[in-house]
Design goal:
Layout lengths: L4 H8 L2 H5 L5 H20 L7 H10 L1 H13 L4 H10 L8 H10 L2 H13 L6 H18 L4 H13 L3
Length: 166
Amino acid sequence: MAIKRELLVDKLIDKKFFNTVYISKADEEKANKDHVEALVELLCDTRYKSSRQEVYAFLKKEPKAVELLMRAIVEATGDKKTLVAACWESNIDCTPFLPFFTEVAINEDFEVTMEALTVIEQITGEVSPQLATQLINKVQAGYAAQANTPKAALLLDLVDLLSRWV
C-alpha cells in the first residue's frame, strides 16, 4: 500500500493548522492531537508496514513532522519503542533533541532505552561540551538507582556515547 507524499502532507502537515490562530486552546489541542494520532497510526499500525519507508522519507524532509514525532513520543503509552526507533530509522537529525533522548534512556524500560541509545549514537551534529557534561551527570545520577538491573550496562554505554562531545 503506497502512500503518496500529498496524502502524508494532508494527513500530517495541515497548512491551515500551522497558519491558523486558534481562538480556543481546546481547538488547538484537538488539532495537535489529531495530527499526532495520524502519525502514530502511520508508524505503528501494521496496515501501513509496507509504506513505512515513505513515512520515514517524509519525516526526514519535513521538520514540522519531526516536531509531531517528538510530541508523539512524549504522549505515547504502548508504542514508544516503535516511535523512538522511527527517529533513527528515518535518519532524521536528532541533535536538538539530545537532552530529550537522554531522559528517555534514563527513565524508560530496557527496549525503549536501546532505541534511544541508537538515536543518540546516530547524532552527528555539534553538541557543546557543557551540555554533554550535564547530560553525563544526569545519566550517572540515574545509574545509581538502576545499578543492579540489566539496564545499567546501557546507561554506561550512554555515558560513553555522550563523552565523545566532552
